[in-house]
Design a protein that fits this description.
61% helix; 9 helices; mainly alpha
């Protein structure tokens, strides 16, 4: 997945400049008079861990973890579902920024953009924040509204990749056919790969990542040569 300067649509409830990971202070003893959305997100991520869905949490559990009275929760969200969807949006934005930065550090004239993007994606499975695990888990096992929220984030990834595939191919003086479909195929491939390697060993992750890189290159080469092929050749 490759960086672009903008997406066609942005989630309305969060601003990208406000979503980079932050280190929050340890929870104080007793209840807090006020609390931020960041602290509620942090408390929720602490509770769900690598396997548990947000849907399994109660408002009281989150309030207790955050160190607030249950009624304080309603200052930011009307219910758990609204918090979950906002957290999914935040996770998508943070991950796009992280992967975007990795791509910016790779040369657009080399294959390292593909490798660096996939490697950074895999590394996010082990971060303390747990954003990628959240997207993967809720995208496959969450409620219909959570799955729809994750799907919207995948569309944002896909849109950025679509724009950058065109840009990078131009830098390399190449043409790519159906860049939108190639972007969709690569996005779905990488997220499916991520879902499969959450619980496997580092060695297995490396193997799957290497295979995914080859698959991405196959998709790109196929898109570059599609117009050269006879309609009856595929």
């Amino acid at each position: 997945m490759v960086h672009s300067s903008s997406s066609a649509h942005k989630p309305s409830s969060l601003n990208e400049q406000d979503v980079m990971p932050v280190t929050l202070p340890a929870r104080s003893v007793g209840r807090k008079a006020t609390i931020s959305k960041e602290e509620l997100f942090h408390a929720t991520l602490n509770l769900i861990g690598p396997q548990k869905s947000i849907a399994s949490l109660s408002l009281r559990e989150i309030a207790r973890e955050a160190g607030i009275a249950p009624n304080s929760f309603y200052r930011h969200f009307k219910d758990i579902d609204e918090l979950a969807i906002a957290l999914i949006e935040r996770a998508g934005m943070v991950l796009r920024q992280i992967i975007r930065q990795a791509r910016l550090q790779a040369s657009p004239k080399t294959q390292s953009i593909v490798r660096s993007s996939v490697e950074v994606f895999i590394q996010q499975l082990d971060t303390d924040e747990g954003y990628l695990s959240l997207l993967l888990r809720e995208g496959y096992t969450g409620s219909p509204s959570y799955k729809a929220a994750v799907e919207r984030q995948l569309i944002f990834f896909q849109q950025e990749l679509h724009e950058d595939l065109i840009r990078i191919e131009q830098v390399n003086d190449r043409k790519i056919s159906h860049a939108d479909i190639a972007a969709k195929a690569i996005t779905q491939l990488v997220f499916n790969m991520g879902a499969k390697v959450i619980d496997v060993s580092p060695e297995q992750r490396t193997q799957v990542a290497d295979q995914t890189i080859i698959m991405i290159r196959m998709i790109l080469e196929g898109a570059r040569n599609l117009n050269k092929s006879s309609p009856r050749s595929y």
